[in-house]
């Protein structure tokens, strides 16, 4: 019985450090791949929301959102939403790994100038 408690204690300690190390790597991948405020906001909104709706909020073409999703799926930071097969959901919240999420209203105004040529 004491052996079981000791093993459980050791396993809990291993799990704690594994989570810590894993979250540090996740944060690095997110910071590298989400290198603009538009991408950060689009990623954070990717939780079953449609690409046209996200595109409108972040002021880019919906095809741009779908391209982001393809890239992020390869990296393993999003997955296909179980309810909406053509939509994706993020694997991690940016807030939970310590990355600031830009405000949606500000993005639509400031990104309008830089995305004019991206519209289809």
- The proportion of residues in beta strands is 5-15%
- Strand order across the largest sheet: 1-2
Q: What ranges have pLDDT less than 50 throughout 5 or more consecutive residues?
A: 106-120
Query: Mean pLDDT, rounded to whole units?
Result: 86
If you compute it from the alpha carbons, what radius of gyration comes out, rounded to the nearest whole angstrom? 18 Å
Q: Helix and strand string, N-terminal first?
A: HHHHEEH
Basic shape = elongated
Structural class: mainly alpha
Count of structural domains = 1
In angstroms, what separates the terminal alpha carbons? 67 Å
Number of strand elements: 2
User: How many alpha or pi helices?
Assistant: 5
Helix residue percentage: 55-70%
> How many strands, what sense, and barrel or not for the largest sheet?
2 strands, antiparallel
């Amino acid at each position: 019985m004491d052996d079981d408690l000791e093993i459980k204690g050791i396993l809990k300690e291993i799990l704690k450090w594994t989570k810590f190390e894993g979250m540090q790597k996740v944060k690095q991948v997110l910071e590298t791949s989400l290198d603009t405020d538009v991408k950060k906001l689009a990623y954070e909104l990717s939780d079953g929301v449609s690409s046209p709706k996200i595109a409108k909020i972040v002021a880019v073409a919906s095809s741009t959102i779908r391209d982001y999703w393809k890239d992020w799926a390869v990296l393993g930071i999003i997955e296909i939403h179980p309810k909406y097969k053509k939509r994706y959901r993020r694997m991690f919240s940016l807030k939970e790994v310590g990355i600031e999420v830009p405000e949606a209203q500000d993005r639509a105004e400031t990104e309008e100038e830089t995305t004019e040529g991206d519209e289809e």
